[in-house]
Amino acid sequence: MRGFRGGFAGEAMRMGMGRRFSAGELQTILLALLEERPSHGYELIKTLEERSGGFYVPSPGVIYPALTYLEETGLAEVENDGAKKLYRITEAGRQKVEENRAAIDQTLAKLERIAEGMAFVNRMFDPDQHPGGGGGGGRRRREEEDDDFGRDDGNVRAARQLLRSALRMRHPWSASEAARISGILERAAMEILQGGKADPQQD
Fold this sequence. Notes:
By secondary structure, the chain is mainly α. It contains eight helices and six strands. It has helices spanning 23-36, 41-51, 60-72, 91-99, 101-125, 136-150, 155-170, 175-193; strands spanning 3-4, 13-14, 20-21, 56-57, 76-81, 84-89. Strand 2 and strand 3 form a beta hairpin.
């Protein structure tokens, strides 16, 4: 599924803080990823998906126009790799990244936090399929957090069990039904993250 899961916020990337990922920001992030290593377009899509824990999967219709713009403005260059195009950052592109380093680091950090949150939710709703990974203190802390969450015997626990039952009853679902359900869950997640505050984009 392309864009945000369920497609809410369209192809713009909502960072969970009431703001959107603009075309210019996407281009800058792509430059930062190209600075790490030359990549094909589909590899950049996969990287963004992985770094967000599967929360953001940009479509080719978003990625390739951004890459074309970077090529046309001299920030990236293209090398033919068989039938594919391999994108590399240019010196001008590296300078652009340095000029925006603080914003890039902030955005990538948000992606990492989203990925951690997605992993936590996956463990809560399907612990058998998502056992705790890693080792040492980090793993123990995650297990303690999960235990505390699982011991909740109040309204939240009841609502979580109701949600899990509802999802099981609706499964398997069609593509359109999956989009409807994931949109509902994403909106609920955003409201929880915002602590009950209204989305400023909708004011």
